[in-house]
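pls read this stuff:
=====
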Amino acid sequence: MFAGKRIAVVVPAHNEELLIGRVIDTMPEFIDRIIIINDTSRDRTAEVVTGYIKAGNSRVTLINHEINQGVGGAIASGYKWARDHTYDIAVVMAGDAQMDPNDLPALLEPVAAGEVDYSKGNRLVSGEAFKLIPKVRYFGNSALSLLTKIASGYWHVADSQTGYTAINLKALKAIDWDRMYKRYGQPNDLLVTLNIHSFRVRDVPIKPVYNIGEKSGIKVHKVIFSIGWLLVRLFFRRLRDKYVIRDFHPLVFFYMFGFGLFALSVPLALRIVWFVVRFGEIPRVNFLAFMFFVTMGWLFTLFAMSFDMEANKSLR
């Protein structure tokens, strides 16, 4: 137990036979349950975990997926197990040992103290982050973190793609885990869902861990576009669910006017380009209208963001 709370660690694992043992061996004593979800591994992951159980490690529970559900689906299975067995806090740690157990107390403290409902690691604030994290992943993560701030309404959080998190039982019970995104966009989907339910979220600085023999399945050039499109959909879902269905806020109109004015500026821009190509000069009236729409579009959008920040200040 940690601060009087029962703690379960959810470990999604897919082909992690080389490092899953290290994850189990280095798990702190205050962890009550280690829930390992074997997401159709083709290697000896299940055999290694079963060996620990047979050897008498009573903390380890193995869940085998018959159909691959992705890292998000594996985490959801672990969350549901922890919820159904009424663990106070569920932590997520990867099966490739990329999450330092020494960071666990700092991650658990704000949740165990009741200060927040969900805490997440932030590797980007570390002075070592730029040196340790592969550059493509660093910049891709930074770009997705910015988009996630806008989509989720948690303007104070960063490193949106980290999976090192802790969530309390109240949030576990409030969320429908069967509807959550199944792949690498699960942390982004979860942040948006937490915001819709007005749960408090906090970033906790953690140490980046790389080059220990892990093999990443993430293809950044593909993931950044798929998650980017997911964030666009999540943004509009949050506006609808939080500011229209659950409660009303005028920032919806500001976003609507801002996006509408940007949309109106597109045909004007095309007309200006066509006019310049055909006649060699800029049509003054069209150009002035274009500048007006773009300027007002930015103003409405920035006002909407400002209102959104103010509305979510209490969720820190």
Notes: The radius of gyration is 23 Å. The beta strands are 7-13, 33-39, 60-65, 89-92, 118-122, 165-168, 201-205. DSSP finds eleven helices and seven strands in the chain.
